[in-house]
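SPFH domain, Band 7 family protein, pasting as requested.
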Amino acid sequence: MGAGTVVVIALLVFAAVTLAKGLRIVPQGTEWIVERLGKYHATLYPGLNIIIPYLDNVAYKLVTKDIILDVQEQEVITKDNAVILVNAIAFIKITDPIKAVYGVTDFSEAIRNLIMTTLRSIVGDMELDEALSSRDQIKARLRESIADEAIDWGLTVKSVEIQDIKPTESMVRAMEAQASAERERKAMVTKAEGAKQAAILEAEARLAAARQDAEAQVQLADASAEAIRRVAAAIGDQEAPMRYMLGERYLSALGKLTESANAKTLVLPADIQEAVRGLLGRGMGKG
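C-alpha cells follow.
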C-alpha cells in the first residue's frame, strides 16, 4: 500500500468522523443547547440537526417534559410557636432553555430551595389549627409566590402539592396532654355546676319549706287569737285571754317536763292554780 493510499484512507476516515460529529439527532421531549467557542450559539430541537464539528459543542441537554421535583420534609414553626413537618412536590416545565441554563446555576435546586423558604414563610404566618386545615390555601399562595421567580429562570410552575403537613411527635404528645387536661377541666366544671345547681335547689326547697312553716304559724296565731277572743266574749272577762295564754303556755311547758326521763314530782305554784280555777269557774258560770 502506497503513501497516497494511506492519505486517502485517512482523509476518508476524517471526513466520516467529521460528518458524524456534524449530524445530531435530538430525541422527542428534549432540547439541546449548542455553544460555539464557549458562547451560546443555537438551540437544537427534536429531529435531525447539523452543527459545525470542532467549532460547535452540545453543552446542555434539557428535558422539555414536565419535571417532578420532590421537596424534602422540613420543620416549620407556626405563628403560635408550634413545630410541624411539611413536605411538598412540584411540577415544573422548562419554557425558556436559555434562561434555565444561563440564568441560574442549577434550576432544579434553585426552585426546590425557593419552595422550601416560601413554604416556611407562609406557614409561619399561620397558627397551628389554621395550617393543618388550609392545604389548598397554602398551595395557592405558594404557587403564586414563586411564579415570578420561576419565570426569570425560564420555568413554569404548573402545580405545587402539599404532600404532608403534620405536627412533630413531641408536638403530638404535647397536644394529647393539653387535650387530656382540657377534658379534665371540663369534667371538673361540669361537676361544679352540678353541685351548684343541687345547692341552689336545696336552698330553694328550704326557703319554700320555711315560707310554708311561717304561713302555718301565722294561720295558727290567727286561729289562737280568734279562739281567745271568743272565750273572752263568752265569759265577759277582758283579762281572761291573758290568763288563758299564760295557762296554755304553762301547760305546754309542763307537758315537756313530763316527757323528760328525770321528771318525778311536779309542784304547781298557787297563783297559777288559782288562775286556772278562776278561769274555769268563770267559764262554767257563764255557761
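Note for the archive: Helices lie at 3-22, 97-102, 107-124, 128-132, 135-152, 169-235, 240-259, 270-286.
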